[in-house]
Predict the 3D structure of the following.
Amino acid sequence: MPRCAFLSIEDLSKYVCDDELVIQYLQEHDWEIETIPWRKREVNWFAFDLVVVRSTWDYQSAPKAFFATLKEIEKTGVPLLNSLALVEWNLEKTYLQDIENAGIDIVPTIWGNSSLEEAQLLQAFSVFNTAELILKPIISANADHTYRLAVEDVKPLYPVLAEAYRNRPFMIQPFIPQILEEGEFSLFFFGGKYSHAILKKPQSGDFRVQEEHGGHISACDPPQELLEQSIHLMSQLPELPFQARVDWVRQSPEKNQFMVMELELIEPSLYFRFAPQAVVNYKTALERHLTQTRL
């Protein structure tokens, strides 16, 4: 019976997590699954055949400690999914620059590594020719410290923004209205193979699509062009990920072209409940990886 550890957090009560669906399915098919908080000390990692980073959704508050745990696991030789190298590459959203350099469209971005300046924000409206901006940290999750700003918001909010981004690298992007009108497409890949897709829309009056912020989620069949772009994106990564979620937004209502908003390779929400075949696909990918490691 294969033994697999799912890395998580101490308390998931504030989050929407459906990993129990895949855990139950795996257990019904002779897998032993143990969910372990990533902050837990003195874990015998040698007792597992695989360790999967699943719902470690507070790692951004202590990234050094998080990576210390992953390095500890890697040193044991027990396969870590996704790999430490891929997780490190995906930690900072500057990975989007690599995606862009591979010829794949991303949301236009201004990158900042020092203190946030009021003039820089005001100039970004002209650079992007936009009425609204999105400001967020380069290391972030769950839309933490993410702001949607109109030009009239900048001056009164700047003291708050300056404090929030003191010594915190940031990114500035134009707000894409298609997120409100059509939504954000998320496509999921297990073992490099396409599994399923969802469409995420923010609740009325908000711009964040996460369920924790009231976002509405529905299953969808992605446009063929988007599926082909996503498959191509997987082929351009430093290595093939075990689990991946790629988020896209349409460039405009008139175009069938899409931009990458985010590629989640660390602890992606996988939305198993919206696709009955997803747990089957996940199990197949786990078994394939386990077989490869035993060769």
